[in-house]
Amino acid sequence: MRIGHSIDVHEFDSKEELILGGIKIPYIGLKGHSDADVLLHVIAESILGALALGDLGSLFPDNDDTYKNKESKYFVLEVMRLASRKGYVVNNIDCMVLAEKPKLIS
Q1: Residues in contact with 99: Cβ distance below 8 Å, sequence separation at least 6, in sequence order
Q2: Statement: residue 6 has pLDDT above 90
Q3: Bridge pairing between strands 12-20 and 23-30
Q4: Domain residue extents for the chain
Q5: Residue 8 near residue 36, CB atoms below 8 Å
Q6: Residue 20 class from Cβ within 10 Å (0-12 exposed, 13-18 middle, 19+ buried)?
């Protein structure tokens, strides 16, 4: 059994949309090279960390325009493909979003 941990932090950017887990949230967005979906970033990063396969920055560098404005689900899918090719299966993912605003549960 392998366990990965991750944290991701982005600045707010009023010109961007807030996307968490692939869902657009009506609030100020986050600054990033891709869509800045911190939730999907930590999922992908945790899988990579658990399997010692590098990190998002080395696999999908922010100076490569291929990944500019890319939806973060792309990174999760690519990481899952990489894990599968290495013979791994993800059994469980547990995530927490720590934010005072926006309110995510009504």
Answers
A1: none
A2: yes
A3: antiparallel
A4: 1-106
A5: no
A6: buried
Query: By the 8 A CB rule, do 27 and 99 touch?
Result: no
pLDDT tens digit sequence for 68-83? 989 999 999 999 999 9
Q: How far lies 21's CA from each of 1, 44, 45, in Å?
A: 25, 11, 14
Q: Rounded to two decimals, what is the model's pTM?
A: 0.91
Burial class (CB in 10 A: 0-12, 13-18, 19+), 48: buried
Provide the β-strand partners of residue 20. 23
CA distances from 52 to 6, 13, 29, 48 (A): 13, 32, 31, 6
Helix (H, G, I), strand (E, B) or coil at 99: coil
Q: Which CATH class is domain 1-106?
A: alpha beta
